[in-house]
Amino acid sequence: ERMGALLLLGLLVILPVVEGVEVCRVADLSLVTQTGEFFLAVTFLGMGVTTIIFVLMMLKAASEKRKFYLVTCYCCGIATFAYYAMLSGQGWLISPSCRQLFYVRYLDWFFTTPLLLVDLALIAGADWTYVAAVVGGDMMMIFGGYMASISSGHIKWLWFAISLLIFAPIVYTVLVTFKTLVERSHPAVGELYNKMSWLLVATWACYPVVFIFSEGTSDWSPNFEVMIYGVLDLLAKAVFGFILLLSHEALDRATNPPRFASIAGGTASAYGTQMSEQKPVESYI
Predict the structure, then answer these.
(1) Does residue 275 surpass a pLDDT of 50?
(2) How would DSSP label each residue in 16-29?
(3) Cβ contact 158:145 at 8 Å
């Protein structure tokens, strides 16, 4: 009788919790198939090869420019790990809409999207106060998106709206605040920043659309979702990185602003600097 009473007490505690849980039937589950796994494999290979290329490029880069290479390498490297986890069948759960949800993707974005913003801030020469503000906002945006993906009903769309509200000032910072700083730099730096900032904003603006039709309304299959997210990730990370790291003149200008040495007794400058070797005054007479 004592064991029966304890069992009854346990049921009374558990039942209120079980009532709020949506149980999905196997037939209702929406999972990634071999088609989705193919797209995961392609994206994983793309990110992995890109990371290796960036590492090799970093080893040959001038020391003052390696900060750009380090940030970009970590960005693609983390994405490579995330896609390997998804390809291995890890890092996912079943959402309230009975849909396979790769939560590791949000873990990836939580770390990599701030790194992309740091790249832009380094080009613009932004103060670290602005960098901390935009990076903090970006992390809040990703957290809000994750909470929307694991929620249902009006709570899902409330989290989604909060995330979009945070996205707006991030776009303003990238296209206006940082852009104002770049206008005082060399034209090559401004041209590079324009390419990278618009690529980033354009690709990031597509993510909420994918969310609405996949994790939001489930109109798009998990396979199509994986494909679209893979394309966007490659554009926002790999293509973004190649544009940055192959712009040698702009990186030289961004890391070594023009300097003027004394006429007498100048020394040869390091690779990538704007100061040329100075000769004694007597050599010009």
Answers:
(1) no
(2) HHHHT--PPPGGG-
(3) no
* Distance of alpha carbon 281 from alpha carbon 285, whole angstroms: 7
Spatial separation of the C-alpha atoms in residues 276 and 60, rounded to whole Å: 22
Nearby residues of 102 by Cβ (< 8 Å), 6 or more positions away = 86, 91, 92, 226
Nearest to 179, CA basis, from 246, 99, 125: 125
Query: Contact, 223 vs 39, CB < 8 A?
Result: yes
Token code pair at residue 258: 């023009």
Q: Are 208 and 170 in contact (CB under 8 A)?
A: no
% of the chain beyond a pLDDT of 90:
78
Q: What SS3 class is residue 111?
A: helix
CA dist 147 → 125, 135, 152, 221, 229 (Å): 33, 19, 10, 20, 18
Provide the token pair at 125.
């020469």
- Whether 244 and 119 have beta carbons less than 8 Å apart is answered as yes
Q: Is the dihedral of CA 128, 134, 140, 146 positive or negative?
A: negative
Of the candidates 12, 21, 10, the one whose C-alpha atom is nearest the C-alpha of residue 150 is 21
| Strand duo 100-101 + 93-94: pairing | antiparallel
- pLDDT tens sequence across 133-150: 999 999 999 999 999 999
pLDDT in tens, 201-224: 999 999 999 999 999 999 999 999
